[in-house]
Amino acid sequence: MKRNGLLAIILARGGSKGIPRKNILSVAGKPLLAWTILAAQAAEKIDRVVVSTEDKEITQVARGYGAEVPFIRPQELAEDDTPDLPVFMHILEKLKEHEGYEPHLVVQLWATSPYRKPGDIDKAIELLESDPLADSVRSVTRAAQTPFKMWRRDKGKYLAPIMRSEFPELYEQNEPHSLPRQTLPEILTQTGYVNVVRTNVILSGSMYGKNIMPFFHDPETYTEVDSQKDFAHTEHVLRTTQDIPEI
Prior knowledge:
It is built from seven helices and ten strands. The protein has about 250 residues and is α/β, with parallel strands linked by helices.
């Protein structure tokens, strides 16, 4: 049994609805998916880069840039509402069954966030390795807008502060939506930059576990392609940033 490897997994469905075929659309001269593959390959700590897809064309692109596609993802694990967990469990179980391969850590990289520093991937891995009680590392940035100034309107006629149930004492003493931002508790937002998780956590039924460490990265160069307007920003970042891995 090969137990000490470190595996990067990139999910890339062919059935994207928001931007059809977005994982292989060209951005800054390469398919969107290729940028994430290249960053994973350039990270010193990653041993294998596996792409999970149900799509033949994506398979060809992934393999063309040096990633492995050891098996095609079943269609029932490639639907619009398929969560990550069963896909990751499928990959790990198949690799163990067919190769006897069981990595001790898994790195999740999102193809739709194509710019990342390979050194940051290594730092996130080292962060998890430094704490034996941590289950995973999750990339985050400080929220651009504080949820203390956000409201809900789905519980009746009147607006309700979205954070009241989480910080009742703060709402009893003040009106947080009227306070300066810097006086409010820090709130972080998750990103698609990098996630590192112990294999046993995934196989026990969770993508993150209970003890999650934050990994901060530069929000100025972070890109996430969810709509057509995101392509312009992504193209600019990929063409103007100097530490992009090349082949």
